[in-house]
Amino acid sequence: MDFSQYESKSSQEIKEVISGLMKVGGMPNLVDFFPILRPLDPQGLASQGKVCVEKLFAIFDSIIDQRLQKRAVSSSYDIDLSTQNDVLDLLLDINFKDGHELSINDMKSLFMDLFVAGTDSISTTLEWAMTELIRNPKKLKITRFELMKCMHTKRETLNEHDIPQLPYLQAVIKETLRLHPPGPFLVPHQAIHDVEVKGFNVLKCAQILCNVWAIGRDPKIWSNPNAFMPERFLESKIDYKGQDFELIPFGAGRRSCPGLNIAHRELHTMLASLIYNFEWKLEENMRVEDLDMEEKFGLSLPKNIPLMAIPA
Ligand code: HEM
Predict the structure, then answer these.
(1) Does residue 81 have a pLDDT over 70?
(2) Picking from 22-26, 172-176, 192-196, which range would have the lowest pLDDT averaged per residue?
(3) Is 26's pLDDT higher than 90?
(4) Residues 120-311, CATH architecture
(5) Cα 3 to Cα 267: distance, rounded to the nearest angstrom
(6) Could you tell me if the CB of 271 is within 6 A of ligand 1?
(7) Average pLDDT over residues 275-280
């Protein structure tokens, strides 16, 4: 199912619900500071979140129902109408084999996790990458030149196997994630026992937010920290896979982002096709210096004013 068509009702619907969830999830909640207030839900955030989850589950229900009907028809006529061999089919197969292991409700929760964690994060990062490149036309040119060189010998479209041949593109993605991590505080963690970290006592059950945004702009770690300089990664081995703590936009350790590998592929191939296939310009009368670089406060840090760029 294609959720990326602007005109399609289903894609707009899912986009709105996910934005709603991100908005509710990113609002400071009094209940986190005064848990005694939880049953009262003073800001109405829990009830708004519930409405969004119900809407999202209704969308998933209808998709799952349609697929179950197709599968039923195909099994009764013994023809293979149904299997699209996608994640939904895979999960339904598991559900049929052993329903107790994975219920339909588990599947919907899993899809919710994937859609909430895996859509905004990618689009926000790409929007920031394009903004930074349009603001730095020389760097956009270098990225494009590298892509042209790589594609020169190929006849097919660019794909994930090309990523290792594109060091500048990789550096652009790293630099974008350093400056604009879509999970600026990661996801809240909780200490499972009292622990001392570099002289700080962290009590059992304390909620920990890790300020990756500040780490990415720390002048003790990065020279000229607020400047967009992909070059800083060309001669460096620093990567975002969770081993180099100065760059952990995906977190680190056992609860780090399970979508890292797909995100890595998506970010590079999508940004590459935007840059390779189009020349970008700003709206008439708009100068590069006028581009708004404010972040919108929330769970992820999208641009406050969306980027308006015109492909040529
Ligand atoms: C630019 C892309 C992305 C970034 C920067 C990112 C970052 C993160 C971060 C920081 C966390 C929390 C890690 C922690 O607290 O230590 C996380 C969790 C998660 N991410 Fe991503 N993510 C991205 C894309 C994706 C994609 C594409 C998917 C799936 C298709 C995904 C699925 C998840 C899930 C399911 C979790 C929750 C894991 C858990 O609860 O243990 N993410 N991500």
Answers:
(1) no
(2) 22-26
(3) no
(4) Orthogonal Bundle (1.10)
(5) 18
(6) no
(7) 93
**What is the distance in A from the centroid of ligand 1 to the CA of 106?**
18
pLDDT tens profile 216-260: 999 999 999 999 999 999 999 999 999 999 999 999 999 999 999
Any atom of ligand 1 within 6 Å of the Cβ of 255: yes
Closest of 130, 219, 135, 128 to residue 182, by C-alpha: 128
Q: In whole angstroms, how far apart are CA 187 and each of 190, 194, 248? A: 10, 20, 12
Question: Where exactly are the structural domains of the chain?
Answer: 9-117, 120-311
For residue 201, what are the β-bridge partners?
A: 196
What is the pLDDT at residue 13? Answer: 86
Ligand 1 touching residue 151 (CB < 6 A): no
**Beta-sheet pairing, 189-190 with 207-208:** antiparallel
Contact 215, 244 (CB under 8 A): no
Q: Rounded distance, CA 121 to CA 183, Å? A: 8
Residue with tokens 């890292």: 260
Distance of CA 14 to the CA centre of its chain: 15
Calpha distance 226→228 (Å, rounded): 7
Residue at token pair 């339909």: 104
Query: How much distance in Å is there from the Cα of 217 to the middle of ligand 1?
Result: 21
Which of helix, strand or coil describes residue 133? helix
- Retrieve residue 176's tokens: 């974008």
Q: What is the mean pLDDT of the chain?
A: 91
4 Cα to the center of ligand 1, angstroms: 20
What mean pLDDT comes out for the span 8-21? 85
Q: How far is the CA of 148 from the centre of ligand 1 (A)?
A: 31
Three-state DSSP state, 37: helix
Across residues 266-288, what is the average pLDDT? 93
List the alpha helices (DSSP H) in 77-189. 87-97, 104-118, 120-135, 137-152, 167-179
- Cβ–Cβ under 8 Å, residues 104 and 111: no
